[in-house]
Amino acid sequence: MNLIIQGAAIATPDLKHLAKLAGASAIEAISPSAFRLCNATVHEEIAPFCEEARLDHAFVPHARKLADMRLAVMDMDSTLITIECIDEIADMQGLKQEVAAITAAAMRGELDYSQSLIERVALLKGLKAAALKRVYDERVRLSPGAEIMIARFRRLGIKTLLVSGGFTFFTERLRERLQLDQTRSNVLEIVDDVLTGCVIGEIVDADVKRNALLEQRDALGIAKEQIIGMGDGANDLKFIGEAGVGIAYHAKPVVRAQAMHALTYVGLDGVLNLFT
Q: Does 93 score more than 90 pLDDT?
């Protein structure tokens, strides 16, 4: 195994200490913010040391190659982008605090996702549809490293699937902007340019996200080991569990505890460093 260390600022003494703990045979620089400790072994002091130093760490197999991957599946809100879109839409109604509290509880796995979405969308009733464009134009920002990561996937022929409990208004714009291959998300009902407070059709919850991944896996004829999955909330755990490489990105504790890897201090381009 190799131990990958990533962080905004990696002190040389910290790196050497981690190499000693892991019994690493060498330290290789991947980038200024990422290093590979070769032939490393697990040590109980590595995780708490990295947490204290605000470093991401991951033990990865020598043979794991990005070129072997065929599908990357990712969440949108707080993963591909930095915000929760529904919270920002609610801000246009003066209800951000109330809606954000429900969102946070749902992401921690404390509420049924579908019911929480119905409740939050109902609060948007009467809002002009133009508010969605304002949120996209003024508040949607890609997570750091997102474009680098997706460009690398595209060069290697890795298909991309965006699965979101958010809304098609945003996923479709991101699909065009980033040249993503597929998206799956919720449809807000709009009548006479006003939100009705309802979602049209099936709600994209944890099961639908998982099924979307499985459908793409089967359509491509690939194995679980050829899939990367990344998300931040409890409703992402089912699809992350179907990926050969599951990544909790700036995620809630319940997701960090169950995913194969966690990236908390670096951007999405840090995903690329988990492969050779």
A: no
Q: Could you give the CA distance from residue 75 to residue 50 in angstroms, rounded to a whole number? A: 26
Specify the CATH architecture of the domain 1-62.
2-Layer Sandwich (3.30)
75 is catalytic: yes
Handedness of CA 75, 76, 77, 80 (dihedral sign): positive
From the candidates 56, 68, 77, 87, give the one annotated as an active-site residue: 77
77 is annotated as an active-site residue: yes
State pLDDT tens for residues 14-23: 999 999 999 9
CATH number for the segment(s) 65-276:
3.40.50.1000
Whether 79 and 259 have beta carbons less than 8 Å apart is answered as no
Model's pTM, two decimal places?
0.93
Q: Are 112 and 240 contacting, i.e. CB atoms less than 8 angstroms apart?
A: no
* Residue 25 in tokens: 């045979």
Q: Which residues, 6 or more positions from 30, have their beta carbon under 8 angstroms from its beta carbon? A: 4, 36, 273
Give domain limits for the chain: 1-62, 65-276
107 pLDDT above the threshold of 90: no
Q: Residue 6 pairs with which residues in a beta bridge?
A: 34, 56
Q: Which of 75, 205, 232, 269 is catalytic?
A: 75
